[in-house]
């Protein structure tokens, strides 16, 4: 019952937000007043989702014994969501202060990089502790294959990005940020796909539901980052609502996954 | 412990029934057979020590997936299903 209410809330908010912002794809930007309201509403909603994810994933640490291998993975995830919340709050403040266009890169981007590293570590350690249980009949070979399948296009894509950046005349900080985002996103997608493959074997169990929510959230975030770079590169500002919805869905899924995780470990 | 021995089938089916809620049918089946095999329990009738060893091993594995408290609740449910 609690899970169903959570689903209605999370998916309802995401759907409502998509219905509000996606029409801008066809109408273009609305009046400055309406745009300002949307910036505040969207920003605060995303911060609320991240706050829920950070609090729930941190509280999910408490019922885990110190010698439980899952504690390390959970600590990385909780740290990742917390740093993400701080970075997103910083970005929100910078966006409001700059009148809609925050500096890039900023201290917020540094926070996003640290958060992504923590989330990657959380998923990787999670995979390791799952495989150590010896319950997967293939010993994780199918997960490794799935990761390899996505790694190939990722490496090709990153190589293309790095080549184009090498010839671009960009400030060092921006160059570093432009390199780090696709590299970290790719690593996150690769470990996420491996974990998702393991997750498929868990069918409709509650553990599967928790991780699927988090992992699909990671994929939505990576898709948001890629879309942001792509649209910015081609000056396709009109497609911003797509990015907006992708990030909102990602953060909503983090919140859902973290709350489900908390319910699971507390046996609610 | 009331029973002198518990049938292997009853133990496997109780583990599968409870663990399915958490880890799905496939993994629950793997958990039940793997833990018995790993502990070298092969007979059709399991002693109280055998069942305790399986429950301990299973609780440790489940703790990684669902947390220590929930794993303890789950093995408690399994024990009740077996009638221990």
Main attributes of the structure:
heterodimer, A: 268 residues, 9 helices, 81% helix, 0% strand, globular, B: 84 residues, mainly alpha, two-stranded antiparallel ribbon, 77% helix
Topology:
The complex is a heterodimer of chains A (268) and B (84).
Chain A: H1 2-21, H2 24-27, H3 32-59, H4 70-97, H5 107-132, H6 141-167, H7 172-200, H8 206-233, H9 240-265
Chain B: E1 6-7, H1 8-38, E2 45-46, H2 48-66, H3 68-82
Antiparallel strand pairs in B: 1-2
Any overview of this molecule?
The complex is a heterodimer of chains A (268) and B (84). By secondary structure, chain A is mainly α. Chain A has one domain. Chain A is 81% helix and 0% strand. Chain A has nine helices and no strands. In chain A, helix 6 packs antiparallel against helix 7 and helix 7 packs antiparallel against helix 8. Chain A starts with a helix and ends with a helix. With 84 residues, chain B is mostly helical. Chain B has one domain. Chain B is 77% helix and 5% strand. Chain B has three helices and two strands, in the order βαβαα. Chain B has a two-stranded antiparallel sheet. Chains A and B meet through helix 5 and helix 8 of A and helix 1, helix 2 and helix 3 of B.
């Amino acid at each position: 019952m609690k899970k169903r209410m959570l689903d209605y809330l999370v998916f309802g908010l995401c759907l409502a937000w998509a219905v509000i912002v996606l029409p801008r794809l066809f109408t273009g930007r609305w009046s400055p007043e309406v745009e300002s309201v949307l910036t505040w509403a969207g920003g605060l909603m995303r911060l609320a989702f991240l706050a829920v994810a950070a609090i729930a994933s941190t509280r999910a640490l408490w019922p885990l014994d110190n010698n439980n291998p899952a504690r390390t993975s959970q600590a990385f995830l909780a740290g990742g969501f917390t740093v993400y919340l701080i970075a997103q709050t910083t970005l929100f403040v910078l966006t409001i202060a700059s009148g809609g266009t925050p500096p890039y890169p900023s201290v917020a981007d540094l926070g996003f990089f640290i958060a992504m590293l923590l989330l990657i570590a959380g998923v990787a350690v999670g995979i390791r502790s799952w495989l150590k249980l010896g319950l997967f009949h293939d010993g994780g070979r199918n997960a490794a294959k799935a990761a390899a399948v996505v790694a190939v296009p990722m490496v090709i894509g990153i190589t293309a990005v790095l080549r184009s950046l090498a010839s671009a005349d960009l400030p060092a900080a921006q160059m570093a940020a432009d390199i780090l985002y696709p590299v970290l996103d790719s690593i996150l997608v690769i470990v996420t796909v491996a974990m998702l493959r393991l997750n498929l074997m868990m069918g409709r169990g509650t553990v599967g539901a928790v991780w699927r929510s988090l992992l699909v959230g990671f994929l939505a975030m990576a898709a948001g980052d890629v879309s942001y770079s792509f649209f910015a590169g081609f000056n396709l500002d009109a497609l911003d609502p797509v990015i907006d919805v992708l990030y909102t869905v990602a953060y909503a899924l983090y919140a859902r996954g973290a709350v489900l995780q908390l319910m699971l470990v507390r046996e609610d | 412990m009331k029973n002198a021995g518990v049938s292997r089938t009853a133990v496997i089916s109780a583990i599968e029934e409870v663990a399915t809620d958490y880890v799905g049918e496939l993994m629950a089946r793997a958990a039940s057979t793997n833990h018995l095999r790993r502990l070298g329990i092969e007979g059709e009738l399991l002693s109280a020590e055998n069942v305790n060893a399986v429950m301990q091993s299973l609780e440790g594995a489940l703790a990684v997936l669902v947390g220590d408290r929930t794993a303890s609740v789950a093995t408690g449910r399994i024990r009740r299903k077996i009638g221990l």
